[in-house]
Description:
The chain is of the alpha+beta class. It has 16 helices and 6 strands. A 6-stranded mixed β-sheet has the order 2-1-3-4-5-6. α6 (174-198) crosses α11 (287-309) and α8 (214-221) packs antiparallel against α9. The radius of gyration is 29 Å and the shape is elongated.
Amino acid sequence: MEKNIYDAYVDILKEELLPAMGCTEPIAVAYAGALAKRALGALPERVDLCVSGNIIKNVKSVIVPHTGGRKGLKVAVAVGICCGDAAQELEVISGVTEPQLKELDEYLEQVEVKISESAANCPFDIQVTVYHGASSAYARIIGHHTNVVSIKKDGTVLLEVPFQDDLVQAPENRKLLLLGGICCGSMLFIGSALQQIGIQYTTAGKAGFITAMYMVLVPICGLFFGRKPGGKTWGAVVVALMGMYLLCLYGSGIQNLSKGDLLEMLCALGFTAHILVIDHFSPKVDGVKMSCIQFFVCGILAGIFMLMLETPSWENICNAAMPILYAGILSSGVGYTLQIVAQKDTQPTVASLLMSLESVFSLVFGWIILKEAMSGVELLGCLMMFAAIIWVQLPGKHT
C-alpha cells in the first residue's frame, strides 16, 4: 500500500476510533459543560444549554454513564461541570466517584439549567454558556463529538476554529420536498393500484416476476435523460422478453396473455417511474419527510378512486383487516420509507436489483401459502427473467 494512502487511513482511524465511556451524545454534552466550566474558572450558578434536535431526542431519556442511573440533558451537562475533567475529552466523567455523585445531586438542586434547541440547521450542535456572578463562559462542539470550535470567557475568545460548511446543512427546500412527495406518491399509487388490481386476474408468482421488469426498464428509461444503455442492457431486455413470453404467452399464443398480466406490465412502468423519481429527489430532501408526504398523497388518490369505482363496506374492510394492515404498515410504510432513505446513497439500478427480490418471494410464498402451481415452462420463463435482471446489473470490465 502506498504510504500516502496508508497515512490517510491512519488519520481516519485516529479521528473515528476515540475512547469513550458509554453513550457518546450525553458524554459530548458533559464534555462541553466541562470545557465551559474550565474556562469560567468557578462553579457555575446558572447554565444555558443549547443543543440540536437530534441531541435532545437522543439524550433526554438516556442514562448518563457513571452517574448511577441518572438520566437526561440536565444531568449530562451538570455532571460534566461538577465532576468532569475536560482534558479527558470523551472520558470526561470516567473518574466520577460516589462522593462526587452526592455533590452532583446537591448541585442539581441549586443550579438553574435552561435547555433550548439550536437554531443552526445541524444535526450535531452543543453550546454551553455558564454564569458565575458577573462572569460568563461559552463552549461549542459541532459536527462530531470532539470537534470543539469555540471557547470564550467574558466575550474574550480563547479558542475559535473555523468549521467546515458541510457540518451545517443547507435550509430545507420545502417546495422541493412537497413536489418530491407528490410525485413519489402519485407514482406509488399508479404502481400499487395496478399491481393490486392485476393480481386478481393472475397468480402471485407471475405478478411478482412481471413487476420485476422495472429492473430492465430503469436503465432503458435513462435514455430519456441522456444515459445510453450498453449492449449488455439490450441483451438483458431480449432475454427478459423471451422469459415473459414463456411465462405468459407460451402454449396458446397471444390469447394466453391475461388481463392481469397486462396490468402487471403497466404496474412495472409505474414502479420504474417511482424509482427514478426517488433517485431525483432523495439526495435533495429529507427522506422520511418525503415518505410521509408520499403516503399521504397515495392515500388521498386511492381514497378518491375507491369512492368512485367501488362500494366499500365496514364488513369487507374488517374481513380484510390483516392484509390491509400488513400492506399498509410493512409493505408500504416500512418498505417504501426504507427505499427512499437507502436510495439517497444508492444508484437506481442497484436499488432496483435489490428490490427485485420481491419476484423470488412472490413465487416462493405463492407456492407455500397460496398453493399455486407453475409448469416447467413457466418456471423457465421466470428463471430467464430473473437472469436478465441479474445480468443487467453485473459490473462491466471498467466498472
